[in-house]
Design brief:
The complex is a heterodimer of chains A (241) and B (305). With 241 residues, chain A is α/β, with parallel strands linked by helices. Chain A contains 9 helices and 10 strands. Chain A has one domain: Rossmann fold (3-Layer(aba) Sandwich), CATH 3.40.50. Chain A has helices spanning 41-49, 71-77, 94-102, 108-117, 122-125, 136-148, 166-182, 194-198, 217-226, and strands spanning 2-10, 16-25, 30-34, 56-61, 64-65, 79-82, 154-158, 186-190, 202-207, 210-216. In chain A, a hairpin with a 2-residue loop joins β9 and β10 (210-216). In chain B, a hairpin with a 5-residue loop joins β3 and β4 (50-55). The chains are: A alpha/beta (241), B mainly beta (305).
């Protein structure tokens, strides 16, 4: 279980982004964190992974206080993070990156299995460098594959749908559903997309640096689409915020 | 052959106690072993130190290894090696160099290689340079390479300086005939107070010739690297040079690619990028469980691989 208590975070020039935020994420659940732009969702995700250090507050993973642990230590405890805007590496192949992710050598069949989950044909990609020759959509899918390869206790995806085409987006939904079915771990997805919200076990809305509301998907979808959390209704493929 | 040479050979070549195919091992300016094959003849030069290597026409899939090792200080080795590659041959040449010193005296190897590629021949040239030992003497390797490529010949050069060389000046010049292709992939790592200068000059004189020159370098600590390339298109041709460098600590890199189009159908491109490792790259690898130090090392290893 992940527990965040009284988390505050300000930008270096003093703008408050998270303000006394509290959140509990149960084990084995798929939780989607949504909310308006600028509300603090990505900051929250980065604080969970250790990419940002909160100004105050505590973070617990399975009742262990991980507040002061750095990125590497949190990764070793089983926290993974997929960046919204993945970086590229000249000279590092897809195979190498996935093996770094898994912490071991991976067979070609296993590589195929991981990459097919994000809609890529392994044999076309494993020896390619993770560099500018890959499109934005390809690099994004590889980023997601690095998290899948880790089989983490807690996987955090920051807007995984950004930069992914419609066909791949459908596959991505299936991938998250499969991850939920087959992995014992917990999944947190930062997203605006209604289809991603629909597959969640729980939804939390972050706005103005706080958890404005949270609950089961059924309850929260009614609220979100009914207008109590949003002023206008969205069509199915639209973003909710 | 002494133990230091054996250790250097393992690092600069595929040597595992023996070589596949023809070879000549140079140790402190002397021949420490030689074998020719039916298709590849290795002979000593008559007028100066070095070798003449004759690769028969139509030789396919063979390798010739000519590593050179300097195993102590106070050695200034100069060697002239000429490679004559026959028509339609397709071979691999391995020509690494290792220098070692445990004293305050300098150790230097200066290899001057000339390649003559006949029509339709193809050569893959592998060259690894390394310096080892705890001595304070300057370890320097100053290779000079010239190549003449006849019609449709292909020369693929993969060169790497993988550490420990205090000073290097690397000069490469090539002249390309019609349809000839030159591919150069260079990787250089410098650290501490080391310096490296690389200088390329390629003239494309034949129609449909092409050069692709890719240099990747990492300058750490107080080291300094200088990259200069000149690509001259005298015919309908394509030329591309790319210099990518990572700098860390006080490392410095100068890059000066030059293009000279002397024909209306010459298409020439150069790219140069110098900068430190992007912080996001390190963060990504840390989220995979690597320490900051290991993340940086992984990025550099990949960049130079």
């Amino acid at each position: 279980m992940l527990r965040l208590e009284n988390i505050c975070w300000n930008t270096p020039d003093g703008v408050g982004i998270l303000n006394d935020l509290n959140l509990t994420v149960p084990d084995g659940k798929l939780v989607v964190i949504t909310g308006p732009n600028g509300g603090g969702k990505t900051t929250l995700a980065k604080i969970i992974a250790g990419l940002y250090q909160q100004d105050s507050g505590k973070i617990y993973l399975d009742d262990q206080d991980i507040t002061s642990l750095d990125i590497t230590e949190r990764a070793k405890l089983g926290i993974s993070f997929a960046f919204q805007q993945p970086v590229r590496f000249k000279g590092i192949t897809v195979k190498k990156l996935l093996e770094l992710s898994a912490g071991e050598q991976i067979s070609e069949d296993k590589m195929c299995d991981i990459l097919s989950k994000v809609g890529l044909c392994a044999r076309e990609y494993i020896n390619r460098e993770v560099n500018a020759t890959l499109s934005g959509g390809e690099i994004k899918r590889i980023e997601i594959a690095t998290v899948i390869a880790r089989h983490s206790k807690l996987s955090v995806f920051d807007e995984p749908e950004a930069g992914i085409d419609l066909w791949s987006f459908t596959n991505l939904i299936h991938t998250f559903e499969e991850m939920r079915r087959n992995m014992n771990g917990t999944i947190i997805i930062i997203s605006h997309q209604e289809r991603i919200l629909q597959i969640a076990d729980e939804i939390a809305v972050v706005a103005d640096g706080k958890i404005k509301s949270s609950g089961s998907t059924n309850t929260m979808m009614d609220k979100l689409l009914g207008g109590s959390e949003k002023t206008a209704k969205c069509s199915k493929q639209e973003e909710l915020f | 052959m002494n133990d230091i040479t054996k250790d250097l050979l393992k690092q600069i070549s595929e040597w595992d106690g023996s070589f596949q195919g023809a070879y000549n091992i140079r140790e402190n300016g002397q021949c420490a072993g030689r074998m020719s094959s039916k298709n590849i003849q290795i002979e000593s030069k008559k007028d100066q130190p070095g070798l003449e290597i004759f690769i028969a026409p139509n030789t396919k899939g063979e390798t010739v290894s000519i590593p050179a090792c300097v195993t102590h200080g106070d050695v200034d080795d100069l060697v002239y090696n000429d490679f004559y590659v026959g028509e339609n041959a397709d071979v691999t040449i391995v020509a690494g160099c290792g220098i070692h010193t445990e004293t305050g005296e300098p150790a230097r190897h200066n290899g001057i290689h000339r390649f003559f590629l006949a029509k339709n021949s193809k050569v893959k040239y592998l060259e690894k340079h390394i310096g080892t030992g705890h001595g304070t003497g300057l370890r320097s390797i100053d290779p000079v390479t010239t190549a003449e490529l006849e019609e449709n010949a292909v020369l693929e050069m993969d060169t790497a300086q993988i550490g420990g060389v205090d000073k290097t000046i690397r000069k490469t010049e090539a002249v390309l005939g019609a349809g000839a292709r030159l591919l150069i992939r260079e990787r250089i790592l410098t650290e501490k107070e080391q310096t490296a200068v690389t200088d390329f000059k390629v003239e494309m004189n034949g129609d449909n010739s092409g050069v692709d020159l890719i240099s990747r370098s990492v300058a750490k600590d107080n080291s300094h690297q200088s990259y200069h390339s000149v690509i001259i298109g005298n015919a309908k041709c394509t030329g591309h040079s790319e210099c990518d460098a990572i700098i860390s600590e006080n490392g410095q890199v100068d890059a000066a690619p030059e293009l000279h189009a002397r024909n209306n159908d010459a298409a020439l491109i150069h790219e140069a990028a110098i900068g430190k490792i992007a912080g996001e790259q390190i963060l990504k690898l840390m989220t995979l469980g690597l320490s900051e130090h290991d993340a940086e090392a992984t990025i550099i290893d990949g960049f130079l691989s």
